[in-house]
């Protein structure tokens, strides 16, 4: 029987796509500062969606006593080889502490000393119990006045005309309903992209990755297709993580001071440098040289610290606690083996994402970006996502009060209808030769082998990238034929298509930066050295279906505005 | 990475189906069913949400699973994490939500 979707139309002042850290905090701040109606469209449920589902052990971006926001900017700039937006970093850093204190007022537990001051971990971190960080934030957003949350709604397309956004279109992942949502302003806060490359555990535990497997690059893809300018996709993020569980390492590296050692016990981290990419590169090299496996040396810690570490991981990555128990050895009795993850595109760690002005408005009028989907501001982490949500929220409130963004619910209805038709086409298509799962696997293999994945030691050359491009285009054609039996399968079809769009842009960016500025993150074997000619941003915009690369000079002004 | 839902204990409240960040769990005939085991991230949101401790979390054999399962029982701010080992013995770790991570 032919599947037909019920079609619903909604009007709101502000639409927020994605109710993760940045999206929820933006909603809360629009509510606090205006009477505007806010709608959060969330693909899962905001209680545990996004990066903080399992929890987080520290606030990794905080200005500790004796440091300044500018120190943070300098640190992140150096770590990214200079390819950052200092205006974005500074404006985020100026909000880190205030957002942490706000979260504490909402119920987050932060470790304090006897004088009531937050206890620092190193130069930029404070320690928390973040197991329930997301439920606390989600509750605040849900209870905020004029905020409506629509859970289990997947947005696929932005409604854009003449470079101005008017809303978005999506579908329920549980019911046979399609949504056309009109808004004066739209904030994209969908997170970054995992699952582009073959993962560390490609079998049964394929989704045991560090970055959320449900962050599929939807926000990037809808922006790319709508003609938004993107930046620095080639600055991929590869995390150094606990082997198998892909659990974060900060709690043992910074928390108990465990050093990176190779199988021969040699502390190799000093040999390759201490930037984020150098730590990954060093581990890859040691393995290539036959000195693997590599470890974080936890076997020097005191026995009393074992139980604390087991607890700490339960609050953030419970699989690692279970792994220690399954192995029959505590962290004091064995070093923790480490490995690099598959490459992710994530603006919270590196600088990939939407090209935004200082207020986080994208190059499309009325369209904002915050959190991992927003570029130029690496190492923003959780407080940076909160900060960007707040910065975008305040500018949206200001612009709407000044009537800069107007409502037009009548516009683009035909386009919305076409998009909904395409959902029905997928639902009613006959099952083709290849399943979505098979196409996803094919995409991950192409990216792994030809665009610098784990099996290629993160390295590539131009010939390989050209092959990757050709093969991804082939898979895009096959994905056009994909079918879905129900709404959840429809979600899988769109996630695959989104990832392929992101892969294509990523390959174009990797091809454009003809140098190696960051080992592992962007290691081009045809251009193995850094080149001053590339002290520029590699940006891109889709024009007539083709990706156009734009090299932009580094932004030095404190307040950057788009010129279009 | 995945979970096992104990059909006998499940009361069909649907809370796990609501909270899963991948929307991977469905209700079928008033019982929660893990529809996509290979798509589980291992965040244990469902394990924490289950009011009757019917969901067990385990490590796939491909990432070091040796047969232990884990679930959690909440009592106010205290989370009692119970790990049942293959030999039938339990390890219990209590975590207080009011206590910060020390590292």
Describe this structure in words.
- The complex is a heterodimer of chains A (564) and B (103).
- Chain A has 15 helices and 21 strands.
- In chain A, the strands form five sheets. In chain A, strands 1, 2, 7, 8, 9, 10 and 17 form a seven-stranded mixed β-sheet that branches. In chain A, strands 3, 4, 5 and 6 form a four-stranded antiparallel β-sheet that branches. In chain A, strands 16-11-20-21 form a four-stranded antiparallel β-sheet.
- Chain A is of the alpha+beta class.
- In chain A, helix 3 packs across helix 11.
- Chain B is mainly β and 103 residues long.
- Chain B has one domain (2-96): Alpha-Beta Plaits (2-Layer Sandwich), CATH 3.30.70.
- Chain B has two helices and seven strands, in the order βαββαββββ.
- In chain B, the strands form three sheets. A three-stranded antiparallel β-sheet of chain B has the order 5-6-7, with no helix packed on it. Chain B has a two-stranded antiparallel ribbon with strand order 1-4. Chain B has a two-stranded antiparallel ribbon with strand order 2-3.
- Chain B is globular and about 40 Å long.
- The model of chain B has no long low-confidence stretch (mean pLDDT 95).
- The interface between A and B is large, with 64 and 44 residues.
């Amino acid at each position: 029987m032919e599947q037909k979707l019920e079609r619903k139309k909604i009007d709101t002042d502000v639409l927020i796509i994605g109710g993760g850290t940045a999206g929820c905090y933006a909603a809360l701040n629009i509510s606090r500062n205006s009477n505007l109606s806010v709608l959060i469209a969330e693909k899962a449920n905001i209680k545990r969606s996004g990066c903080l589902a399992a929890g987080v052990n520290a606030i990794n971006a905080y200005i500790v006593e004796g440091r300044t926001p500018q120190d943070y900017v300098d640190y992140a700039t150096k770590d990214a080889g200079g390819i950052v937006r200092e205006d974005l970093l500074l404006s985020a850093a100026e909000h880190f502490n205030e957002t942490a204190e706000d979260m504490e007022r909402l119920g987050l537990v932060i470790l304090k000393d006897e004088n009531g001051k937050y206890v620092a971990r190193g130069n930029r971190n404070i320690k928390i119990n973040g197991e329930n960080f997301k439920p606390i934030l989600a509750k605040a957003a849900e209870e905020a006045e004029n905020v409506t949350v629509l859970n289990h709604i997947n947005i696929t397309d932005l409604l854009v005309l003449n470079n101005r956004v008017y809303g978005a279109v999506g579908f329920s992942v549980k019911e046979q309903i399609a949504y056309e949502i009109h808004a004066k302003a739209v904030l994209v806060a969908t997170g970054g992209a995992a699952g582009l490359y073959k993962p560390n555990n490609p079998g049964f535990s394929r989704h045991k990755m560090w970055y959320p497997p449900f962050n599929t690059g939807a926000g990037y893809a809808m922006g790319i297709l709508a003609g938004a300018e993107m930046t620095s996709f080639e600055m991929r993020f590869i995390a150094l993580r606990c082997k198998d569980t892909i659990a974060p390492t900060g709690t043992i590296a910074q928390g108990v001071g465990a050093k990176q050692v190779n199988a021969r016990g040699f502390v190799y981290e000093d040999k390759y440098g201490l930037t984020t990419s150098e730590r990954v590169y060093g581990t890859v090299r040691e393995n290539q040289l036959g000195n693997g496996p590599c470890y974080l040396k936890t076997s020097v810690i005191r026995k009393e610290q074992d139980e604390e570490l087991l607890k700490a991981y339960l609050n953030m990555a419970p699989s690692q606690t279970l792994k220690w128990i399954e192995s029959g050895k505590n962290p004091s009795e064995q070093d923790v083996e480490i490995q690099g993850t598959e490459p992710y595109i994530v603006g919270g760690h590196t600088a990939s994402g939407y090209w935004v002005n200082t207020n986080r408005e994208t190059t499309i009028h009325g369209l904002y970006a915050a959190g991992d989907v927003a570029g130029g501001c690496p190492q923003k982490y959780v407080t940076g996502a909160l900060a960007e949500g707040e910065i975008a929220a305040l500018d949206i409130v200001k612009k709407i009060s000044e009537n800069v963004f107007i409502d037009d619910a009548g516009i683009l209805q035909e386009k919305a209808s076409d998009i909904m038709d395409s959902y029905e086409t997928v639902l009613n298509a006959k099952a083709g030769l290849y399943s979505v799962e098979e196409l996803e696997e094919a995409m991950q293999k192409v990216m792994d082998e030809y665009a610098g994945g784990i099996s290629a030691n993160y390295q590539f050359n131009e010939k390989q990238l050209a092959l990757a491009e050709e093969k991804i285009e082939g898979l895009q054609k096959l994905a056009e034929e994909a079918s879905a039996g129900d709404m959840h399968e429809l979600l899988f079809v769109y996630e695959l298509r989104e990832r392929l769009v992101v892969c294509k842009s990523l390959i174009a960016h990797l091809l454009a930066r003809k140098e190696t500025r960051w080992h592992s993150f962007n290691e081009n074997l045809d251009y193995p050295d850094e080149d001053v000619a590339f002290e520029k941003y590699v940006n891109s915009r889709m024009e007539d279906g083709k990706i156009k690369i734009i090299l932009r000079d580094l932004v030095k002004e404190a307040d950057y505005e788009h010129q279009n | 990475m995945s979970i096992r839902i104990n059909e006998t204990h499940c009361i069909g409240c649907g809370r796990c189906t609501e909270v899963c960040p991948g929307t991977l769990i469905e209700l079928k005939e008033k019982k929660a069913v893990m529809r996509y085991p290979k798509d589980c991230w291992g965040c244990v949101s469902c394990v924490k949400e289950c009011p009757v401790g019917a969901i067990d979390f385990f490590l796939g054999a491909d990432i070091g699973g040796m047969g232990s399962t884990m679930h959690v029982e909440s009592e106010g701010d205290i989370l009692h994490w119970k790990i049942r080992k293959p030999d039938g013995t339990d390890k219990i770790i209590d975590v207080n939500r009011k206590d910060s991570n020390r590292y």
